[in-house]
């Protein structure tokens, strides 16, 4: 555990030492302000004014130096351009090589400047956080918003990097011109699809992308997956990720995610018919659908623990459990056994390896593509959710082979059993178990050394460091201890970094705002499960819909997931604060639930479809924003271990599904004519509770 002040001191470039923000001085000032306010010698309003002025001065010093360095880099590029023109007129291989190395030197110096910007941005964020924590204000939001929105903002110089973009463009274009392309020299503007192969340019582009604190669709989807990142990740850990990364293994994890979601929703359109064919009530479909979620509550825990030791074995077990579960589900028809049907679904739930899928992406995928992998996890889930009902709609055939019946009720089980069997074969052939830390240490040579010049070593360290998520965007946290806290024992330091060892430990790490966000997650999953699971019963009772009609409706709902995430991630989240979107989405979910009730007028298809669509879409928006917030504010101790943040969110959502499916079955005792209102009423109450809780904690949400 490293205090940020010491970390900043260690990372500073000696020649630039006077231009970094004076974090140590500002930390002392915060402590001094606290003593003055406590003693009554200073008014809080004066403290805010003085602290703002101090921050403005520190930022101005840093920004002006950054602009000065950009000017020096631009001057060097202008000089190199003259040499470049002369070389193009009289090509000389040795001069071309020398010129390319000169451009790379400028690129390496630009990387150092980006590290300079990064460290100062982290220091600014941490001192604002320390100030808010000490005085209980929300000053950080006010300061950043007022400075960033001003037309002469110096913060904009830091976050938009306009000058940096021009320097990167010049280096990229000139290096590309110096590459041989069949004797001619093409511009990157003429052939924009050609990849930039130079590692320095790629490192700069990566650094700029990670330093830019803006929301994109890909980043939004990645946060939607709630794959928690560890607080401190060293370059050596990133190297381990690169060595152990196996693309086919990642595809197999995403395939497991997709097939599991298909398996979850493929039975929804036919579950009521299957229940009635076995002599049970149509509303028993709630128990049939929910039994898979019941088993998942327990399987998520042991799969999360199992992934501490292996990824391959849990996936094999998952495939076998799902294969057996689907066989039992399909055979229940000929056995005329509702017990076998439920047992099959329970067995399927015991094969839920979503905790392993999340953990694999978090631990075994390199940082450079972890965002894409996380987005792939969400996309695979959404695609599976849409394909499940659509596939059920296609399986409207009936035939017998020997004594086995194949119809719309049993075919989902047979199809998924075959799919999991093929997946198991692919898994055994292609999956590569990642090396664990102990294995890597045993295989490494402690005496191995690499010779390089001081400049090469420095530039490599800079490039390696910038391949990690920069601290400003990834939520990387360094310790905020005051000087007196630095005397804590190493054991206490380790305790504060140790993962939670139980649900009780994990719960104690949750702040009130995080608990509210988990309540919101429970609410939206409950409302969505009610809509999806009872759709076949409700639509057949009120509208006489066939299985195909229900399948089309559910597939259309599933297909809205990715477009809605594109809209929110690319546009809406850039125009409004996350907490504003959060509260607005909750209100829209409330409206959708309210208009779904069957009260005074005859229930119609447009009312059901429109209100259901409004509620589902708003819930999807709410889920994305809520998980995005959770991924940023959960304790760093929940990024690793068995009881991690991903497991907590999975358990909250799974419990919501269990309660929702139980509500459908219990509501069935009131009769199918009262089922709709009986199940919507708890949704409405929970939604109102989550809105009230959000309003109470609104100012503490980021």
TrEMBL record:
GO cellular component, one term: plant-type vacuole membrane
Keyword tRNA-binding appears in the UniProt entry: no
Residue ranges, compositional bias (Polar residues): 443-452
InterPro entries: MFS (IPR011701), MFS_Domain-Containing_Protein (IPR051068), MFS_trans_sf (IPR036259), SPX_dom (IPR004331), SPXM_SPX_plant (IPR045264)
GO biological process: transmembrane phosphate ion transport from cytosol to vacuole
Acidic residues bias spans: 479-493
PROSITE patterns per record: SPX
Region (Disordered) location: 438-462, 479-500
Keywords: Membrane, Transmembrane, Transmembrane helix
Domain SPX: 2-145
Molecular functions per Gene Ontology: transmembrane transporter activity
Family annotation (Pfam families): MFS_1 (PF07690), SPX (PF03105)
Subcellular location, principal: membrane
Comp. bias (Basic and acidic residues): 453-462
Lipid bilayer topology: Multi-pass membrane protein
Coiled coil: none
Subcellular location: Membrane
TM ranges: 250-268, 280-303, 315-332, 338-356, 377-399, 411-429, 549-569, 581-601, 607-630, 680-701
Family: Belongs to the major facilitator superfamily.
PANTHER family, per the entry: INNER MEMBRANE TRANSPORT PROTEIN YAJR, SPX DOMAIN-CONTAINING PROTEIN
Protein name as catalogued: SPX domain-containing protein
């Amino acid at each position: 555990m490293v205090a940020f002040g010491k970390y900043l001191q260690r990372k500073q470039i000696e020649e630039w030492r006077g231009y970094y923000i004076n974090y140590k001085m500002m930390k002392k000032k915060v402590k001094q302000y606290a003593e003055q306010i406590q003693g009554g010698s200073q008014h809080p309003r004066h403290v805010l004014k003085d602290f703002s002025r101090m921050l403005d001065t520190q930022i101005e010093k840093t920004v002006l130096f950054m602009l000065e360095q950009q000017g020096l880099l631009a001057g060097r590029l202008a000089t190199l351009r003259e040499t470049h023109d002369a070389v193009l007129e009289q090509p000389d291989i040795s001069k071309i090589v020398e010129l390319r190395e000169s451009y790379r030197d400028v690129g390496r110096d630009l990387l150092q400047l980006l590290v300079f910007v990064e460290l100062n941005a982290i220091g600014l964020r941490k001192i604002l956080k320390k100030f808010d924590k000490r005085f209980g204000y929300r000053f950080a939001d006010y300061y950043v918003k007022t400075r960033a929105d001003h037309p002469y903002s110096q913060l904009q110089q830091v976050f938009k990097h306009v000058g940096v973009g021009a320097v990167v463009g010049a280096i990229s274009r000139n290096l590309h011109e110096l590459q041989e392309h069949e004797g001619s020299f093409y511009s990157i503007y003429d052939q924009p699809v050609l990849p930039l192969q130079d590692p320095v340019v790629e490192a700069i582009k990566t650094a700029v992308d990670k330093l830019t604190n803006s929301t994109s669709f890909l980043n939004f989807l990645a946060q939607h997956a709630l794959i928690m990142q560890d607080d401190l990740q060293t370059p050596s850990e990133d190297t381990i990720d690169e060595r152990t990364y196996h693309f086919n293994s990642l595809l197999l994890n995403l395939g497991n995610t997709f097939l599991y979601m298909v398996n979850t929703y493929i039975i929804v359109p036919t579950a009521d018919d299957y229940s009635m064919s076995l002599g049970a009530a149509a509303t028993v479909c709630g128990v049939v659908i929910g039994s898979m979620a019941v088993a998942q509550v327990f399987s998520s825990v042991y799969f999360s623990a199992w992934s501490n030791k292996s990824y391959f074995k849990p996936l094999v077990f998952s495939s076998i459990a799902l294969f057996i579960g689907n066989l039992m589900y399909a055979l229940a028809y000929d056995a005329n056994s509702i017990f076998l049907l439920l047992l099959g679904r329970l067995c399927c739930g015991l094969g839920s390896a979503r905790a392993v899928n999340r953990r694999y992406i978090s631990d075994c995928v390199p940082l450079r593509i972890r965002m894409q992998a996380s987005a792939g996890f969400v996309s695979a889930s959404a695609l599976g959710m849409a394909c499940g009902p659509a596939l059920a709609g296609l399986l409207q055939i009936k035939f017998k082979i020997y004594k086995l019946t194949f119809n719309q009720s049993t075919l989902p089980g047979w199809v998924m059993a075959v799919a999991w069997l093929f997946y198991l074969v692919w898994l055994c052939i292609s999956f590569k178990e990642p090396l664990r830390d102990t294995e890597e240490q045993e295989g490494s040579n402690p005496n191995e050394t690499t010779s390089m010049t001081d400049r090469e070593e420095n530039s490599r360290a800079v490039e390696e460091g910038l391949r990690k998520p920069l601290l400003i965007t990834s939520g990387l946290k360094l310790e905020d201890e005051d000087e007196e806290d630095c005397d804590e024992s190493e054991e206490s330091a380790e305790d504060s970094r140790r993962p939670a060892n139980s649900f009780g430990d994990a719960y104690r790490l949750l702040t009130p705002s995080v608990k509210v966000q988990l309540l919101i997650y429970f609410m939206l999953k409950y409302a969505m499960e009610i809509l999806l699971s009872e759709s076949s019963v409700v639509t057949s009772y009120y509208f006489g819909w066939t299985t195909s009609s229900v399948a089309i409706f559910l597939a259309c709902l599933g297909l809205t997931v990715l477009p809605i995430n594109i809209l929110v991630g690319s546009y809406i989240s850039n125009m409004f604060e996350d907490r504003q979107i959060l509260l607005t989405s909750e209100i829209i979910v409330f409206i959708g639930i309210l208009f779904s009730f069957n009260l005074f007028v005859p229930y119609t298809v447009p009312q059901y479809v429109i209100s259901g669509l409004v509620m589902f879409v708003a819930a999807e928006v709410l889920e994305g924003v809520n998980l995005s917030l959770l991924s940023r504010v959960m304790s760093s101790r929940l990024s690793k271990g068995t009881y991690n943040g991903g497991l907590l969110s999975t358990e909250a959502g799974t419990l919501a599904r269990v309660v929702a499916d139980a509500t459908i079955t219990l509501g069935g005792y009131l009769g199918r004519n009262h089922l709709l209102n009986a199940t919507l009423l708890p949704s409405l109450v929970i939604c109102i509770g989550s809105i009230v809780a959000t309003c109470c904690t609104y100012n503490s949400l980021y």
